[in-house]
Amino acid sequence: MFIETNNEKISLSFNPFISLEVLGSEKFYYVEVREFVDNEPTSRIVESYEVTQDPYSDWGEFDFTCFIEFYFDFEISIYKFVDKHGLQRIFSHRFTENGQPIKFNLHSKDEEDCKIWVERILEYKRIKSCYVNFNSYYKEINDLSDIFLEDEQDYYKTYNIGRFPKTSLDFRSTDERSETAVWLGNWKKIWSYQHPRFWMNLSPKEIIDDILGL
Amino acid sequence: MSIIYSFFGGSHSASSCLMVDGEIHTIIEEERMTRTKSGDNFNSYPNLSSSKIEEVSGIKISDCDYKIVVTPTPEAYFRKILKGNFEKCSHHDAHNYGAYFTSGFEGKSLSISYDGGGETSVMKVFLCDDGKMIQVLDGKLHSFASLPHLWGFSTSHMLYGLEGMKMWTMCKDEGKLVGMSAEGRYDESIYKILQSIVTYNNFFFSGGPTHWRTRFVIREMARLGYFDTQEKREIFSFNLQKFTEDLFINFLNDLNKLYPEHNQICFSGGLFANVKLNKKINELSWVKEIFIHPGMVDEGLSLGAAIKKSYVLCEIQKPKKLKNVFFGLSYSDDEIKILSENYDFDSEEYKIEKIADYLNNGEIIGWFRGRFEYGARSLGARSILVEPTNKNTHKILNERLGRHDSMPFAPVILSDFFDEVFEPSKSKYSAEFMTICFDTKESWVDKIPAVIQKTDKTSRPQIVTETSNPELYQLISEYYKISEIPLLLNTSFNSHNEPIIDNPKQAFDSLRKGIIDKLVIENYVYRNK
Predict the structure, then answer these.
(1) Stretch A120-126: mean pLDDT, rounded?
(2) Who has the most CB within 10 Å: B32, B74, B280, B478?
(3) Rg of chain A over all Cα atoms, to the nearest angstrom
(4) What is the pLDDT of residues B414-429, one digit of tens each?
């Protein structure tokens, strides 16, 4: 999605992970993703750093990414520095699928897997009141789609449902401290960016419930 | 009855500790062995200190009854390198157990740790009473802001982009900002900027985790020229100090409303390396006494973990005071004599009257006696001693040591004279470890200019007692007889950017380079021919 504020143009996507670009009058912007956890009075920062469009800058990334693909309740905010005042928030967006087009890629050739996953996705659709698009190996499943958008980026969110190995993108996947799990900022322990828990001993239903936060 | 080995590694300030039957046997910080200051190595492991402990104790780590690792030391290190079964001790538990059980506090007290983040927390608070500790606050890293982050990132960006200036390092150079802060003044804009990073309300420091948020703001300030000149740096430091004090004192006052009987407080964690903050806390009217653990930064974690285990084993049951902090390595006269033959020195036997005379004549004396200190300060085992009466000493000594600090030098004072020279008269046990600033009484300000902050007239005294360090106590007493000054300047025995020295060779090298005029090393005095 594209958003324009008074001075900035923002490109924000959750397909399949969080990525954000900001173009504007400031050389640097600071971006935070905060997670809301039930029964906790304050939000938790999951990822945060500076972005810049200046290719010669000593610091800051060109765009902001947080590679988590599975569901979590979060808000993404952009700040700028205002001289004599400090940090000032210029944009924030709370992730919410309600009423939004959501794409589901089902990565399994096992029909039983897909049937179970479709059932859970339809439950997800009922809870979120969203529009769903199915992309699977089975036409009868794909035909259950409410919506079909030509540009993949027009979906509000894309979920990959399957059994995925850890990848080189997994933050600190080689960190000796964690050995088998991904850590984010030393407080959110997950197995990979695609799975909160290791899927080996989980049923197909547990796998999709993990990914969709059901 | 047990033998406990504990360590911390994988970050800055790695250290090893051996505790036997509830008594501290040896503590060695890795930086003393590697000769790289802990702030310059954020990936330090206790490889050398653990071997040294085995060597001096004759006890193999593998034979210890209990082996403890302080988290978040990487598991691969102790599983694969040390090849042992290690119990884990939480980072902030280690801080707090270390502080409380060395505080000597009787009755109700608080123990507070606050740092840039260890494991999953930046702060923990315990209610303590009669040897029992109950955790009442856990400031989680994912949401709780860290004031030490503010200091760390400010320090590392203070000289950013300034040509010819060496960058300062977090976890090492924060004291320079503390030293400068006395020269600055209030600036509403800077204070407001700091408020945009961290706020405090109702036991919660919000804005956190503050590392990247702080880095962004401080970098932007650096980019916009907030730190371009010494005057600007001083103004920033003043506001950072004031902001820290304002927030933290509010927090303490809130704690006091909730737990009014807990009016003794022990502290650990990097924030409490800030001697001016400690001064403010000590001056609170409701505070009976404070104690800052001498190894308040992460170098104290290995000891804290060993203490916690000893407590669990009932080998330590109540807080007791440390007699001193001389838990490091020592060297025999024979070793020293053999080594000295490699140098072109004159030597004589140690005579206390002569050393007092040398000091009274303005000579710079290297002082190397017994086992080296645990913690960040030189407390009279590896010290440089100078008369405190010459106002030019700051310049002379900084030139000799290659330092450029604005931090004033500190005095070591005979315990009997503390109240005559400094105020207020409380938290004197903590002052044995040089962890708090005090006000200097007006009548002494002009007498001891070398150890007084020139603007606010504060000082950071170390109290020495007859039992904590008899040799140093006797020397100052001797100096007092001829000068009527009951204190000496005491600074760390190291050159700029180096850890405090460990062994005789490093001391001899300092003498050969002319950093000191004479070297007292155990029972001999050396000088260049």
Answers:
(1) 96
(2) B32
(3) 18
(4) 999 999 999 999 999 9
Nearest CA in chain A to B121: A187
Q: Note the pLDDT tens digit of each residue in A167-195.
A: 767 765 555 445 566 766 656 788 899 99
- A·B CB contacts under 8 A: 82
A56-78 average pLDDT score: 89
Among B212, B236, B243, the strongest candidate for a mutation testing the A interface, having the largest count of A CBs within 10 A, is B212
Q: What is the rounded CA–CA span in Å between residue B480 and residue A13? A: 74
Q: Which residues from A are below 8 Å from B197, CB to CB?
A: 86-87
CA distances from residue B471 to A153, B478, B479 in whole angstroms, order as listed:
76, 11, 12
> DSSP 3-state assignment of A8?
strand
Q: Where are the domains of chain A?
A: 2-94, 103-163+199-212
pLDDT of amino acid A176: 47
- Cβ separation of A187 and B192 shorter than 8 Å? no
Distance from the Cα of B76 to chain A's closest Cα (Å) equals 6
The number of residues in chain A equals 214
DSSP helix/strand/coil, A91: strand
Integer angstrom CA distances of residue A13 from A25, A192, B361: 22, 20, 74
Which sign, positive or negative, has the C-alpha torsion A46, A52, A53, A57?
Answer: negative
Contact B140 A188 (CB under 8 A): no
Question: What confidence category does residue B81 fall into, taking pLDDT thresholds of 50, 70 and 90?
Answer: low
Q: Where are the alpha helices (DSSP H) in B267-392?
A: 275-282, 301-312, 333-340, 352-360
> In chain B, whose CA is at the least distance from the CA of A36?
B143
Residue in chain A nearest B117 by alpha carbon: A186
pTM: 0.93
Distance (Å, rounded) from C-alpha B422 to C-alpha A69? 61
Spelled out in words, what is the top-level CATH class assigned to the domain A2-94? mainly beta
From residue B35, alpha-carbon distances to B29, B46, B175, B317, B507 in Å are 10, 13, 20, 36, 13
- Distance from C-alpha of B256 to C-alpha of B186, rounded to nearest angstrom: 28
Lookup: tokens for A87: 């940090």
pLDDT, tens digit (0-9, with 9 covering 90-100), for B403-460: 766 678 999 999 999 999 999 999 999 999 999 999 999 999 999 999 999 899 999 9
Beta strand B3-8 pairing with B345-349: unpaired
**Are A79 and B76 within 8 A, CB to CB?**
no
Structure tokens at B252: 């303490």
Q: What Rg value do the Cα atoms of chain B yield, rounded? A: 22
Q: How far apart are CA B175 and CA B29, in angstroms?
A: 20
**What domains does chain B contain, in order, with CATH numbers?**
3-92+300-312 (3.30.420.40), 104-284 (3.30.420.40), 333-528 (3.90.870.20)
Q: Which helix (H) or strand (E) holds B419?
A: helix B418-421
Lowest mean pLDDT, pick from A75-84, B50-59, B70-79, B360-369: B70-79
Interface contact A28-B219, CB threshold 8 A: yes
Q: Is residue B252 pLDDT above 90, yes or no?
A: yes
Closest Cα partner for B176 from B461, B403, B377? Answer: B403
Beta bridge partner(s), residue A188 = A184
Q: Evaluate whether B69 touches B88 at the Cβ level (below 8 Å).
A: yes
Tell if the CB–CB gap between A86 and B141 is shorter than 8 Å. Answer: no
Per-residue pLDDT tens over the stretch B50-61: 999 999 999 999
Range with lowest mean pLDDT among A35-39, A119-123, B50-54: A35-39
pLDDT tens track for B123-156? 999 999 999 999 999 998 888 999 999 999 999 8
